[in-house]
Each structure stands twice: as structure tokens, then as C-alpha cells.
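Annotated sample (chain length 512).
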Amino acid sequence: MASLSLVSGDKQKKARKRDKKRSVAGVLALVFVGWFFLQWFLVGTVDQQQKRNKVPDTPRDLKAETTSTSTRKVPSSADDTTDFHIVFSTDCSGYQHWQGILLYYSAVRVSQPGTITRIASGCTPEQQQAIAAEWSRLDPTGKRFQVHFAPSTALEHEKYKYSNKPGGILHWLQHHSKLDRNAVVCLLDPDMILLKPLTAQLVDPSWKTRAHGRNQVEYFNPTTGMAQLLRVKSLANDDNMPARVTTGFPAGQHFGIGGAWVQGESPSAKPAWKNFSKAYVCGNGRVCTTTSSAEASQRYAVGPVYMATVADWEPIAATWWEFVPRVHEQYPFLLAEMYSLTMAVANLQIPFSLFSSYMVTGADVGSPTEAWSWIDDIFAKNNNKDPLQVVCPDIVDKDQPPPLPLPTANNMPLPKTLHYCQRYKMDFDDNSNNNKQSFLFSKRKMPHTVFSCDNNDAPVPFDMQELIRLAKDKQQQSSEWTTIEKRTLFAFCQLVPLLDWARKMYREQVCV
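Output written by the structure step:
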């Protein structure tokens, strides 16, 4: 019996050991299953987020759509270079197509040095072929006006196309085989025209400064007395500004967007920024998370015109592209790509020298970050008499835009560009029929076929001669011109005659 008890006891011990092993195996199985489902959930969440933002590629994975396999040019040993490139980003819509052609002709008008490249994103093979053929007729040499095709980097199922700007310039930088890293690249928007040549020059050591109104400072040539650059007064004490754009010293147009993103998640933030996480965009503990509002406004609040060397553009473009989906996810509005760039350069600690003199936009803008005060000065110099002759000289008799610089503004400065992102509108009393006439220039109202070979030479968007007739009537009646009216007249006298002239040039060059 004893032996039977011992055997039975051994069986019980073995059974208990077996049960213990099964219990451990069961726990391990549950842990594994739990781990598997956690990974599945996390991967699924990331995948859903990526699908929601539709980020086509990471910056380093943007695929080339060019046949060139050349390596990048070895950087020059010199500290400076004469290479200057203007680039602008578009999709392949007719809306931005005509804007790009007008930008090119404005550059021809002012004898802009260097090359001008359209970066066209998301074009079909048929669109690429048509654009390339058209560009070859506009510039048979291929040296002045070029086109680069990039894949679409639009977000939200192609709804947010402004992300094509960082994606496009990054693709262009990665696949341009002849760029010297010291070359200066100037990024514009397609809805801009040049009023003066853009160059890499900043402040000449011989220039002096003087107050211009209450909120601005001019840098002027003491020999001629002519102003060369315009800045917001609070930015004038910048002792580190070089004579020209160099690596580490980019420059650009001062924008009033300021450092709104700095407010992110703070109690005082505006509603759009209440839940905006800087750490989600830049990374925990990174520079942009501690950037002050003053730093953001005075060092990084830049917009088109953007000028930097290739060596600076490479990290800027890559970081800009990386940040856009993260900013847009939290701030799904028009200016997400602009805020993304300001956050990128803040995080990279690449401050921009900010100027007001690169641009004017809407005629009602009162911010000192733009150069409308220079246009106001032109009218003031002429005692505000006959505004038409002040900013529209000779266009009554000549079939071309008014000459630049304006004869009536000798020794007076002009902004570098006119950015027609806003509408320009004027109303006149037409005494000939006791009626009112309205004149409007709005890029969204323009026909996309304004540059075409259909032999339609009707004025677009209106007959400038009719506006001149009514403006003369207004002047003869001694009617007062408001500041906004005078600025609008300036915009009309630059945009409409330029467009008429450019259309004629286009037909001569392309429609043959």
C-alpha cells in the first residue's frame, strides 16, 4: 500500500508541475496576443493618420522625374557667387499657368538676371509635354525660362495644394545637377510681377539709415540720396547683416504673420492655436518649442520673396516639407505652409533678414511690413496732382507698360514686386451716360486662356483706355483721390498694360 501511495504522490506532483507549466504558457500566450493587438492598433493609427494627411513621400524618398543622373556640382571655394535663380511653384491648372507666364514677362521687362524656373507639381505626361513645348517657344535657348516637373505633394486627397511648394522646391534641389551650393535661390509665388530686378545684394557698407515715417527705416545711398531698402523700425539695429545673401544669412519679405504659432497650447492663444502642439511639429525639447514671440516676429516672420543659398535651402526645404503635414493637421488653413516654413527656420536657427521693400499687396494694407509708403511718397512728391500722370505716364500713346523707374518718380524707390494676391477695384462716375463704371483686377476672375493663340486681342480684364478716360474726368472735376484709390491706380497701371503687352509678345513668340 505504501508503494501505491508513493506512486500516487509522484503522479500528483507531476500533475501539479504540468498544470503550472500550462498556466505560465497561458499567461505568455495572453501577453503575446495583447502585444500583437497593441502593435496592430498603433500601426493602424499611424497608417490612418498618414492616409488622412496623404503624405506621398518622405523628403528623401521623392522620386526623380528627370532623366539626369549627374551629381551635384562641387561647391566653389569662393565665398560668393554670381549665380541667381528665381523659382516659383505651381500645380498644373490653367489658373496658375497664366500667372507663371505673366511673371516671366515681368522679369523680361525689368531685365532680371539669372534663370527663372517654374516647378510644376502633379502634371500628367500630356500636360508635361504641352508645357515643355510652350516653354521652348517662350525661350528657345532654355537658359532663361525653364520648367521642372515634380510629383504632387498635395495633402488631403489633393485638396491642399500649397504643400506642393516645399515638396516641389525640395524635389528641384535634389534633382538639379548644376547647382553651386553658394548660388542664391529666390522663391516667389506665381501671382507676383517684378517691378525691379531681384538680386542677392542687401546692405552696402557705405549706405546710411534714416527714419521713414513713424514705423519704418530706409537704407539709402548717401551719394544719390535714393533709398535702397525699407525695414520696420524695430529691426533696424541689425549689426550682423552682410552686404549680400550668403550661407547662414538669408533674406526675405517681412510678413505680418508674426509668431502666432508660438502661442500654441497657451491660455492666451487664439482659438485656432488653442490645441496646437509645437512639440508635435518640431519634436519634444527642440528649439521651436522655446522660441519667443519676439524672436518669431523679428527673425523668422518671412514670406515670399524668400532668398537663400542652396546650402541653406537644402535643410530648410527638407524640414519645411517634413513640418507641413504636422502643421496642417492641427491648423488646416490657407497659411499652414507659411507657418510651417517659419517654424522650420526657427527650429534650424536660420534667421532671415526681413525687409519691407520686396513687396506690396492689397491697396488697403497699412502694415509697415510692406512698401506702400514708397508709392505714397511718389504721389506726395508730385503734390498729389494728376495721379494718372504720376503712375501711368505715356501709356496713352505707347503700346506697352509704363517705363520703370517711373519718370515722374526720378530718384524715388519702388518695391521689388507687386503681389496681386488681393483684389483691386475702382468705381468711377461716367458723366457721358450718367452711370457708374467699375474696374476690377482679380486673379480668380481672369480667364485661364488669357495667354492663347485664338487671335482674341480683346483687353483683359478691362480696357485701360476707358479707365484713363474716366480718371481724367475725375481729375478735371477736382475730385479728391483717396490713398487707397491712388494705390489701386498704381496697381492697375502696372498690371493691366503689362498683361496686354505680355499677351502680344506671347502671340509673336508662341503662335507662329
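Annotation: The chain is about 40% helix and 15% strand.
Annotation: The two ends are 118 Å apart (CA to CA).
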